[in-house]
Amino acid sequence: MRLDKLLTVTATATRSEAARAVRARRVLVNGVPATNAAMQIDPQVDAVVYCGTPVSYRAHHYIMLNKPQGYVSATEDGKDPTVLELLPQKYTALGLFPCGRLDKNTLGLMLLTDDGELAHRLLSPRRHVAKRYYFRVKFPLTAAECERFRAGLVLEDGYETKPADIALHEDMHSGVITLIEGKYHQIKRMMQALHNQITHLERISFGPLSLPADLARGEWRELTAAEEAALQAAAE
After folding, report:
1. Which of 21, 46, 192, 213 is deepest in the core (most CB within 10 A)?
2. Whole-angstrom Cα distance, residue 115 to residue 39?
């Protein structure tokens, strides 16, 4: 692997930043300043230090994002900003994509990754990876409507949803919904089947991942080792 590619795929630096650091003799390979950003290295064997910080090679990246309103869950869009635009430039070369979708006005937890195999397993209906959402609706929900919701509903296009849990708060206008599938606008369409309307929707968990209280809207961070392990386990 080229040295500059290692620095980009580890989100250490952009290719131009890597070239400048090499020219400034601030990139060490096995303790020796690199003289060429295109030099070949073995990321599993060679020790690379960028501007005083050791570089750890990882085959894949996993990022948790607190999605704000107005961003679309896509890698590119001709009209609206995408969730990838919330990340620094050095992450754009990693081939990240959203694992699952939240619509433009839905908020909360998103997983961004370049691990296509893991994303496929997490989103497979056979694995029943749960996703939890905090919601508010326009009209109060009755106990009977909640039971219909839990049993599964027939949507306007004839699709019959799988059973979905709903825990209603005392105000009867809000609560938490748990899905094991993720059809297009599913929660909004399920509420429409009950002649109601979602006024606020926020994903608060995805499998073993929960939205941290200290991760502000629009902010992101890489998963911890423990979170990565839990995510891999959930996909098995």
Report:
1. 21
2. 27
Query: Which pair of tokens denotes residue 171?
Result: 């105000």
| Residue 213, domain member (yes or no) | no
Mean pLDDT of the chain: 93
The residues, ordered by sequence, that sit 6+ positions from 137 with a Cβ below 8 Å of its Cβ are 173, 174, 191, 196, 197, 198, 199
Would residue 114 show up in a list of annotated catalytic residues for this protein? Answer: no
Owning domain of residue 186: 130-206
Instruction: Give the domain CATH number at 10.
Output: 3.10.290.10
201: domain CATH number is 3.30.70.1560
**Single pTM value for the model:** 0.84
d(CA 54, CA 15): 17
User: Within this chain, do residues 8 and 29 fall inside the same structural domain, yes or no?
Assistant: yes
- Tens of pLDDT, residues 133-156: 999 999 999 999 999 999 999 999
15-63: pLDDT as tens digits: 999 999 999 999 999 999 999 999 999 998 999 999 999 998 888 899 9
Enumerate the β-bridge partners of residue 135: 175, 201
Do residue 147 and residue 198 come from a single domain? yes
E runs forming strands in the chain: 27-29, 32-33, 48-50, 53-54, 62-67, 97-98, 107-113, 131-137, 165-168, 174-179, 198-206, 209-210, 220-222
pLDDT at 160 over 80: yes
Q: Say which CATH number the domain at 86 has.
A: 3.30.70.580
Q: Which of 42, 103, 115, 165 is catalytic?
A: 103
